[in-house]
Amino acid sequence: MIEAQRRFDLLTQRARHDVIEASVEHARTLYRQDQMEPGLAAQFRAAAAALAGEGTNADDTRRAWSALRERVRDVHVSRRLAEITDSLVLGATSGGEVSTATLTFPDNSYLIMMDHGLSNLTWLIAQLFVVSRRTPLLGHPPPGNPVGITAAAQALRLTTARIAGGGRAGVNPSLVLGRDELALAGALVREIDIFVLAHEAAHILLGHFSEDHSGLTAVGHPSQLLGRRPHEETAADLLAVTLQLDDMLSTGEGDDRVIALRLTAVRLFLALLELYERSMFVVQPTSHPPAAARWRTIVSERLTRWFDDSGRLQYDDIELVRTLRELDAIPRLSDAAAVHSGMGERLDRALWSFHEWSQVAALGHFLMPAPAEALAALTRWPGWPADADVESEIAGLVAEVLAAEEARAIVRAAVSGEQVVSRLAAAAGLTARADAARKDATTHTDPFPSWAIAAIAIDALTETIARWQR
Ligand SMILES: [Zn+2]
User: Fold this and answer.
1) Distance from the CA of 237 to the center of ligand 1, in angstroms?
2) Are 136 and 283 in the same domain?
3) Highest taxon of the source (predicted)?
């Protein structure tokens, strides 16, 4: 047995049989199997059987790897991928992390594991894109009753708020899709999986594994932070997108609709990571460049060189991605209500708890309010003395918090690049510091919104850190 297999068996937990059965049964009701084309129904049964046999999505990952290999036309790369496949174990884990890890072992075997936390998020953005789009995809016209684009974007933001607040990744609002929609979302997710695997394969092909760097992650979870090697990540992204399109690049011919599907998948994936990074971190993992920078590099170094008519493919102007960027003007507090009313019959109400997701929205609001919301909470606080210069008081508190040890530790982490700082940890530390800064002030029945002082301080810190990274 190769070492990668032994390690994989040690690392993965098998789901209990009754849990798998219940999941498959629920999926059966969800995907309106009676309406399915025979081919699609067969695919569904195969996926359910794989899930029932293994308890994970590992089978999807293996299919994506096969699809990647079939796409590569370059003889040398193709031969090398065949060699790698002989000593490769592909698996899925269910640790609730937004990550993919590649590990290498002394017997030259490799283990690539994609976590369900990441798979479930990519499945959600693919579904939301399909049901909210107003443009054709793979020749299929947009839905007659599309979900509002803002509600779709808010559903994604709400889901990442849950993770940022300390929740397990992969617990998403569940959606109901029709026949074609399911097939299209599946096609998008397959392309996302291919890109993620191509990125990991690129690290192996480019020789990025050495004795002192035996593991890399596609999206670094804090516990798996592995040091800063941005040039290798850029090289892996550029080779990944090349491998993903190699069948078309080598012949110089390709169906615009297929190219658009593949590029849309990559764009959605990196937009999702960008949203995750912004929601999750004040100082983000430095094992990979920020997702926004990764996409810009792919566009400038590859896509604009390959496709002169980028307007036709629209890979850089996707409405859902644009809307995600514009969400800052909408309070996070409204996210649960927007999903509740905006998703209509697309929302799987058997699994949707409005109460629970409202709490997630409130948590997101406290962790990451818009600057105007934080300022409004402070100026509206009824406990200010009548003669107080409120603006100066707020500015003084923010300055005091920024000078405190907790804020200095965040700056040090960003400078050294050796430690991540989550929003949750930063908010807890700086809110406590803002509370302490007011310890001599008069008490009032309305608690002072120290969280808002912390939020303004965090905003200032993230702005500064983002400028360093540019
Ligand atoms: Zn990487």
Assistant:
1) 8
2) yes
3) Bacteria
